[in-house]
Every structure is written in structure tokens, then in C-alpha cells.
Write the C-alpha cells for this entry.
Amino acid sequence: MIKDDSPPSPRAELAKAYEFAQVEENWRRRWAAEHPFRAGLEPDRPAFCIVIPPPNVTGVLHVGHALNNTLQDVLVRYHRMRGDNTLWVPGTDHAGIATQNVVERQLAAEGSSRHAIGRERFVDRVWQWRQESGGQIIHQLKRLGCSCDWERERFTMDEGLSRAVREVFVRLYQDGLIYQGDYIINWCPRCLTALADLEVEHEPTAGQLYVIRYPLAAGSGHLLVATTRPETMLGDTAVAVHPGDERYRHLTGSSVLLPLVGRPIPVVMDTHVDMAFGTGALKVTPAHDLADFELARRHDLPAMKIMDNEGRMTGEAGPYAGLDRFACRQQVVADLAAAGLLERVEDYQHGVGHCYRCRTVVEPTLSRQWFVAVKPLAAKAMAAVRSGETRIHPAAWEKSFFDWMENIRDWCISRQIWWGHQVPAWTCGACGRLVVAVEAPRACPDCGAGQLSQSPDVLDTWFSSALWPFSTLGWPEATRELALFYPTSVLVTSFDILFFWVARMMMMGIHFLGQSPFADVYLHALVRDAQGQKMSKSKGNVLDPLLLMDRYGTDALRLTLTAFAAQGREIRLAEERIEGYRHFLNKLWNASRFALPHLPAAAEPLPPAAELGLAHRWILSRLARTMKATIEALHSYHFDDVANTIYQFFWYEFCDWYLEWIKPALYGEDSPERRASRLVLGRVLEDAIALLHPVVPFITEELWQVLPGKGELLCRSPFPTPEEDRIDPQAEAAMAVVQGVTAGLRTIRADLSIPPGAWISARIVAPDPERAELLAANREAIGLLARAKEVEVVTSGERPAGAAGHLWQDVEIFVPVAGLVDIEQEMAKLARERQKVEQQLAGVTKKLANEQFRAQAPAAVVAAEAEKEEKLLARLATIDANRQRLQELQA
């Protein structure tokens, strides 16, 4: 027996319309004042920890940040509600090159430069900029609703992290894993610094392949050599050919004359040479090409540096000294042609390396730099993935991880800029001793002299970022945070920095703490526009999350990003999608506003299933399954399933079916059914709001506060857990029959354009006696949901005259349409619509049949046209089916 003696709750204060701007601002302020996201240090609770991928201190929120941080926040809010001791560490990266460029531009605008004011004042100036203008993105992340422990914000240049950087450098040096050496590095002539391989972006470029004659030193004849960079010829110290190449075997031990210079250089045999490229003869420029550098070491060849740090030719380039590298190229080509040494020039498409910051063409150059010997570290990181200590999601990325790690090269970690962690290495001016230490030494440990000069280089920004999972927790000190939260639980980041950052964090974490820094790595897709194109200002297709939040609200943006975060390589985002999810939030608000006056004043236990009708048992069963599916999706990082599962449940099952079903009871006289409806309505609404909270925190927190008996913040309230005994397959099967028949009636109404306000009559023929009994028992609900004043249920019978029919499984559904439908008018309307669709289809089909269109249009555009064709064909089929139905009614 259902007992409910409590009066209905008084109508709570909930605005008629959902004003997201006001709601969001109120909750941002309250969360900031009450610090509900503060992590505890209780050792008796399960720990859940995420370290934020630190955005650049120069950055502003873009759509990639919005996706990345929304997904992290979904996990963090879920685990906090689960009762886990949850820490989300926020912070920013000092972004060495980017930040230095910002301040250098300021100085240039003032008519000054970093060299004019000196290193110390320049670094002070950068700190001043960071204090006044840096970190804007942190405020934008708060606007996004990120529930970080903001009192623990870190910066890669703060005192604690700087100590960790020095400690790591010194220990790696002592372990023989950091060394200084002359090596080919990537050099940016604009930023005037070395770049790691990963900081060079290779872009397809239309260039030329120059075939040059190298005269034989012993007499007449020449050797043809192909190159894309003829200016580097001035630094050649050999020409290499493959020992198996029959064309050049006779040249063993011979020499050629370097064109334009006349210097004799040897012909060497090396299996590195690709016989199929160009002429099969390779010019060897050891100081300006990595492969040539390695080849030169094998053959003990000298290296000549013919270019300076600004991309100008040095004195080693002879008459070309002082020329810019590209001007030198033009002059060299002209001089070769004039001397009769230019055999031919061919158009050639090849990948050209560009600086990832300023887009300048990178110059490989020989330089003395600091390196990390990474192979021993990489082996341990690969072992962690193979053993399952760290799991990569999606698993398809494991192959890329192993491919890169197995072929990894030593990491160039020094940069020739001023902003960053200065290399903790000093050289004694008296005896030349190199001193590497955590703290600055007062005197040389060998000779006692105090003439110590620190290396001017700073460390690669990614070096400090590689320590992020443990340096932010207090390492090298043995802090409680480190003991509780390391290793962290999961890293959420974009797949494009798997090697920049993720692999390096694994290498450092395992080496210094003996454990991989995270149990799981979730690599999300990149956000592109609706056509699958990369967003860029030049294309005008950039979606600014700040503007989108202004326009549609933060929750709508978060819900859209979560719903589209499938485990793949790209997410196609369109503004209309965000608008669509904004409508869902309106639905959530309006449904809650409708329900509030009907809810009991306080939460009560639900009655046993035996005391509940079909609709209640069904919605509770669907709620339990939704909870299970949501929790499973969260733990497997299927974020799109999280959003879409709850969306489908709330909109289609709860609002479209359950609320409509129980409305008569809610507005009727007091009865067991009315009391049951109130209790179940309250439970389902409460759990649905809590389920949605990790994805849409602002609106759910607002709604939670007006639910009866709620006082605690929702972000600190328990996450709903499914009651297994509420899962009711029989209720779900029975409801599916009712829904199928109701949907059939709605289909007839829609296909025949029966006015929404018109009442119909229905005859349902269900041959199965059990189905017939079920439908008869729920005929009132069917009538209400399909707006049918009369619903007749029989086990057999003929189609009534003048009735439209629909078949659902073995159930026949008939609706007499006399007086409801003007058949002639509907036939004419369908004919007009068919003509319009045929015209559209003809245009699309013609375009798809055009081979030139298919060959030249982007794949995404072709796919969109094919999808349009498919939809138009489906619409034609529907029109024809409706015409057939009307013709049958005329017969």
C-alpha cells in the first residue's frame, strides 16, 4: 500500500525561462567563495587525481581547450560525487619561446630590445608581464566551469617547480643521461633558438630539385648531384654514392671539384645513399643536414658551418658571405647556370620544416647543445604500456606510441633564449671545470677559483612540463600529496602531443619515482569545423568558445563537446549543434519547473515494484539502466555515450513518455496512483539532474537547490547508483508494445497531416491475446498520448472502411479519417513536394556523377553530397508511401 501523507511541496522559486548568463555567474561566484572543489588529504578514501595539461601562460581559451577541460571536469565531478578524495591540479606553462616573443614585441614597440636592456632586466620584465597579463586562460577555465582545486594552482616557473627542474637535471647528468655535445639540431633563424624534432612542423611545399654538375678532379667529365638546397653546396665536404651502384663504382677513391669554389672533395661509398633519388649521388654537407652529419662521422669527414644563427652566409661561404640564405640560393643558381654547371631544374614537392611558433623555415645546423639520452628511459615507458601499468585509450594509439618510442632520438633540451629555466651548469674561468649543481656554487671544486659563469641556455619548455605529474605534488620533497595522489589516475589530452608530452612524462615519472605517472591516458580527437576542415582565422571557420558561451551558455557548449567526443581522430563541430543542445537545457528547465509543484515535501522511500503501475516500473527500470550505462561509459572514457545516454533518457523516455503518461494522475484527485506518480517523479527527476551534473554543472546545481529537502551542493552530493532490483525486463517489454502502437498512431497522424488538435478514433487488432490484454489495460494512456478519444482493442477484425492503416510487428492499427483529411488536397501537396525533391535530387546526382567534382572537391564535401542524395531518396520513398496510403483511402 502506498503511503504519502506529506502535502505537496510549495512552488519553489524557479524562473519561467532559463537565463543561463545569470545562473552561471551566480554559481561561479558561489563556488569561488565556498571552495567546494578543495581536495582533502584523508588516506582512508580512494584517491582520484588529474593534473591539467598546463595551457601556455600566453594563451586564451580555444575550442580545443574547451573540449579537453570539459572532459576532465566530467571525470573529476563524477569521482568527487562518488566520494573519492579528488584532486584536479590546475596551472600554466611558462611557454618559453611564445612568452619571450610577446615581451620582445612590447619592447620593440617602445623602441627597445632585450639586448638593449640586458638579460636580468628582460627576465624581470617578463615576470612583470606574467603578473599583469599572463594567466588570462585560468579565468576562462573557471568560466568554463572547471572544478579544479584552484588554491593549488601551479606555474612551471614557480619556486617549487624550478627546484624540481634543477634536481632532475642534476640527477640525470650524474646518471650519465644528460650530456653536452656537437650535433645537428633544428634551428629557427627567427626565434634564434634550437628546436626539438617535435617542434618542427613539416609542410608540403612546392619547390625545385636542382641537378648540378660536379667536375671530376682527375680530368674531363662530371658527376651529377641533385639537391633542393643548392646554397648548402658551399659547405659540402664529400659526394656519396652507394657501393652497389654500378654507375659509380669506377669512381671509388676519386675526387670531384666543388662547383663555384673549386675545392677538391672525395667521393665516398655509403649504403645510406638512396640510389633511386635524383641521380643516385648525394652531396654531403655535415654541418647542415642530420643524415649527412651521421655519414660524415662514419667517414671522418670535416664539417664546415656556412650559415650563422640568423640564416646569413658566413665567411666559410667565400664570395657569398653576408647573403641571406634564400638570396644566396638565387645567386648560387644563377652562377651555376652562368658557369655551365646547372644541368637542369625540376619542380619538386617536398616537406619543409617550419618552426611551430613563428612558421619560419627551420635550418638544420651543427651546434653544441645539451641532450637527454632517452633510449633507456623510453624502454621503461614502453614496458609500462606493454604490462598494462599505463593503458592508452583508444588502444589504436598504442602502435603509434611504440613506433615512435622504438625509433626515438636523443632529446635536445637546450634553448638559446632568456625566458625559462636556466641550465644549472657553470664553467670555471680558471681551470675550465664544468660544475652541474642544484644550487649555484660559490667556487670551483677543483681549483677554488670564484670565476664561474653559468650556461646562458635555458631548458626546453617541455622539460619542465615532463615533470608536471610529480613536481606539482611537491617532489622532490616527500609530501602527503605525493604519497596520496601519485601516480595520478588519468591524463586527458589531445593525441597530437602524445610524444611532445605524454611519453616524456612517462619517462621522467618512471625514472624518478619508479611508477608511471598515470594509470590511464585518454587521447581525445581534434575539433574541426562541420566539413572536417582544420579551423583557421584565414578560412573564417574558427569557433570561439568564449563567444559561444555568450551566445548559448556554458552548459550548452559543454554538452555539445561531450556528446561529440567519440573516440576518433576528429570532432566535427557546427554552431547549430550547440543551439540544439541549448534546447535540451530549456527542456530540462521546463520539465523541472513543471514537476516541482507536484513533488512531496521530503524525499521518501519508493514503494515495492508490486505496488506500482506499468509506467512507473518502466521508468525506474530505464533509469537504472541509464545509470549503469553512464557509469560504464565514464569508466571506459566513452564520453559521447555519457552525454547521449542521459540525453535520450531524459528527453524521450522521461519527458516525451513518462511525464505525458502521469499528467492526468498528477492533476487528478488524491489516489494511490497520484501518490505513486509524485514519489516516482521526484526520484527520477532528482537522479536525472544528478546524473547530468558532471556534464552540465551550472543548470543542474541551480535545479538541485530547489528540489525539496536539498541543502548540500550538488557537486558534493552522492552520484546516483543503480538499484539492480528496479531493472524490470517485463515492464520494458510491455511498455515497448504500448509505445510501438502509440507511435503507429502518431505516424498515421503525421503522414496524413491530421491537425495536432484533432481527436481521432483508433482500432487496434492484436492477434496475441496477451498483447491485446496489455493494450486494452492501457487504452486510456494510449488515447492520451496519441490524442485518440476512442481506442478499440480486438484480437481479430477487418480494416474499417475509409481507415488508414499501419502495421507494428503483428499489430494492425487503423484510424478512420473521414472528416479529418482532405485527400485531394493532400495528394496535390505531396505531388508538389515530390516535384521539388526530384529537382533537388537531380542536381545532387549530376554533381556526384561529375568525375572532376569527385576528384577535386575535398572528401568531406563529396561525402556531404552523398549523404544529401541518400536523404532525398529516403524522402521520395516516404512521399510515395504516403501517396499510396491516400490512394487506398480513395478506393
